[in-house]
Amino acid sequence: QYLIVSNSPRILIANNGFDNQDLFLYTQKVTSNLDSFKKEKNYETTQQNALQIKHDYYQENCSFEEFYHKKLDEKPLSICFSPQGKSFFVAYKDCGYLYIILEHEIKEVFKITMYCRGCTFDETGTYLAFGTSEFDNEYNINILNLSTYEYEYIITRVPQPSKIVFCDGVRNLIAQFNDNSTNLLGWALESNNRLIDNMANTQRGYSEKTNKIILKVSDFTGNIVDFGYDYSLDMCIISSHDKRIRIYCGAKEDKHWEFSSDLEYSRLLIIKKYDSIIFGTSEGSLRCCIWPIQNLGKNLLIDHPEFIETKLHNQRITSLAVSKN
């Protein structure tokens, strides 16, 4: 269910079966046949000939070795892995655990004794954000500083969060909620405003400037499957179960565009480095489009952008991840 890629040669997989729950951590090993290739009689250690090495004869093989295996008492609600591969967080219905990865062991360093969901690390691995609840139907989003294990920010009285994303470093935070009236909210995080009361944002339209709302999507028709936010363009893209994709422009929730697809887009991923957006479909294929979407104009309804499609398998795409480098 979960697939997390880090810069370090580690990959974290949580496998939730019908009878048990298992958490696996694998380390990656790369081997090559370069040494044996050098012994071939047609190989010379000159720069000119070295550039003529053919991939047919030189190969790098990747394999994975189990580093950690833990039987879980219950199914985790959320899992996130730090970009540097040094720690990970597991959220459960009644608690949450932060682990660090040492050379020969996994060590628990922090515990939350309440409902947890929707966890994520920032791109430096310094901050961890997660949703918590002490009372029914009342949730907070907490941002933990991992160098001090103290809360840096607390956003109070929000709907139940299902997904949380840092944007532009730790300057902005976007959250998706399991709520019919408020679907997405984004905040600008400021050092002089560590406690943010979300009750001022329950009305439609613009919120008070003191709350620094950067994104708001309310009364979205159709259940949200996944979303992505581009902070440099102040643009949000959302896929839904009804095979529609909508693009919103920042806090102006009345300004948006929409196009339809023949397949449900079960996951989406914006890759700024290559000006691309990847859509994972419900039938096991990937579709790659240019980002930002080019044909945005005055009309609400637009044509589906051109895409390149790659078929992977026949099952639903449940997770997309890209390494930070």
How does this structure look, described?
This protein has 325 residues and is an all-beta fold. It contains 2 helices and 25 strands. The chain has helices spanning 34-38, 47-50; strands spanning 2-5, 10-16, 21-32, 60-72, 78-81, 87-91, 96-101, 106-112, 115-121, 127-135, 138-145, 150-158, 161-167, 172-177, 182-188, 195-197, 213-218, 224-230, 235-240, 244-249, 252-260, 265-271, 276-281, 285-290, 308-311. A 5-stranded mixed sheet has the order 9-10-11-12-16, with no helix packed on it. β20 (244-249) and β21 form a beta hairpin. The longest helix is centred in the N-terminal third of the chain and has 5 residues, at 34-38. The radius of gyration is 22 Å and the shape is globular. The protein starts with a strand and ends in a 14-residue tail after the last strand. Mean pLDDT is 79; it is low at 39-58 and 201-210.
How would you describe this structure in keywords?
single chain, mainly beta, 5-stranded mixed beta sheet, 25 strands
Q: Biggest sheet, in brief?
A: 5 strands, mixed
Q: Determine the fraction of residues in helical runs and give it as a percent range.
A: under 10%
Radius of gyration: 22 Å
* N- and C-termini, Cα separation: 23 Å
Summarize this, please?
The chain has 325 residues and is mostly beta strands. 3% of the residues lie in helices and 53% in strands.
